[in-house]
Design brief:
The structure is a single chain. By secondary structure, the chain is mainly alpha-helical. It contains four helices and no strands. Helix 3 packs antiparallel against helix 4.
Length: about 100
C-alpha cells in the first residue's frame, strides 16, 4: 500500500486549535502562535529535524521497502511539520515532505 497524507490538510491544527481559540476564550492568532509553540528558533530547529526524519522514513518505506516506523507515527510527524510550516512559511525547505510531489528532488 502507499503512504498518503491526503487526509491531513495544511493548517488544520493551527486554524482549529490556535487561530480560532477555544469556544469561550480569545483567539491566540498567528503572531502569538510562535510563543505558544516555544519560540521561532525552536520551531525552525524542529522543522529541520522533522523534515530530515520524515525524508529518512520515506526513503526506507518507498525505496528500501523496509518501513522503520508505524504509519500512525509518520502521520503524527507529518501533521506536526505542516502545522509548523503554516506558522513559518518563510522557512519551508525545498525537501519538505508536505510539499513534495512525485519523485525525490
Amino acid at each position: 500500500y502507499a503512504r498518503c497524507a491526503c487526509s491531513a490538510k495544511p493548517g488544520n491544527i493551527l486554524s482549529n486549535d490556535l487561530t480560532n481559540g477555544p469556544a469561550n476564550g480569545p483567539a491566540i492568532g498567528p503572531a502569538n502562535a510562535m510563543s505558544a509553540m516555544g519560540g521561532a528558533g525552536a520551531d525552525l530547529a524542529r522543522m529541520r529535524s522533522l523534515t530530515a526524519e520524515l525524508n529518512r522514513h520515506i526513503y526506507a518505506y518507498h525505496v528500501q521497502d523496509a518501513p522503520t516506523i508505524p504509519d500512525a507515527e509518520y502521520d503524527r510527524m507529518f501533521v506536526e511539520l505542516q502545522a509548523l510550516e503554516a506558522v513559518h512559511p518563510e522557512a519551508i525547505s525545498n525537501d519538505s515532505p508536505p510539499f513534495r510531489v512525485g519523485a525525490a528532488p
